[in-house]
Design brief:
mainly beta; 8-stranded antiparallel barrel; 10 strands; 14% helix; 60% strand; elongated; disordered N terminus
């Protein structure tokens, strides 16, 4: 009986060691974290008859995931999943904009929500417990889940007009960023930096708005933590 007990205890310790080794391997290859990015978003029209009145303060928040490409973590694929609250104010001349309001000049206060998946190559310095610098370059893929606009036409105001059906259902573009990482504890790492995203796809469907190309760009302050 004692031999059986000792054998079972030994097997259990071996399994625990293997499990811990596997978890260590996973942690060395994949880093997971959470970020909150205060941002400024800009809808940039490319055609006359549509002008940007102002940018809009927004927010991006969600999960970060770094998939290390080497043992030291100098090279990684940076991805994740995030929610983006963006928008801008656009002024449309008469004859442009949505059909319900195009009879007169109108201002649209656009409030847009996207779910987004970034994908970038990340380069990072590695020090022993000190400050590290990182930079990344890549792309993103986003999908609108909500679109509202407060429309002012002459003396009339139309609040929270649903414009989701009049938006393109996908956006893709370029992203770049740079910043620092710093240790907060044995397993926690703080992240700070600046990112810029330049959308390539027309946000508003041209057949619905008759406004040419309108791109969504943003500048964000990266604030996050890896666990």
């Amino acid at each position: 009986m004692k031999r059986i007990f000792l054998l079972a205890l030994t097997l259990g310790m071996v399994k625990m060691g293997i499990a811990q080794q596997g978890m260590g391997t996973f942690r060395s290859r994949v880093r997971l974290g959470f970020k909150v990015d205060p941002m400024i978003s800009i809808l940039k029209p490319q055609e006359s008859g549509v002008n940007r009145n102002s940018a809009k303060a927004g927010l991006s928040f969600g999960l970060m995931a770094d998939f290390n490409l080497n043992e030291t973590g100098n090279y990684a694929i940076a991805s994740g999943f995030q929610v983006v609250l963006a928008g801008s104010k656009l002024k449309y001349d008469a004859g442009k904009g949505l059909s319900d309001f195009k009879g007169n000049p109108a201002e649209y206060n656009m409030k847009l929500t996207y779910v987004e998946i970034p994908l970038a190559l990340k380069l990072k310095t590695t020090s022993n417990g000190g400050l590290d610098w990182w930079g990344q370059f890549g792309t993103f893929l986003s999908f609108p889940v909500s679109g509202r606009a407060d429309v002012i036409s002459l003396s009339q105001t139309h609040d929270r007009v649903n414009i989701l059906k009049e938006m393109n259902r996908i956006n893709i573009g370029m992203l770049i960023g740079a910043g620092i990482e710093y240790p907060l504890g044995e397993t926690l790492t703080g992240v700070a930096g600046i990112t810029y995203q330049n959308g390539f796809v027309d946000v508003t469907r041209n057949g619905k708005w008759d406004d040419g190309r309108v791109n969504l760009n943003s500048f964000a302050l990266r604030l996050g933590v890896f666990f």
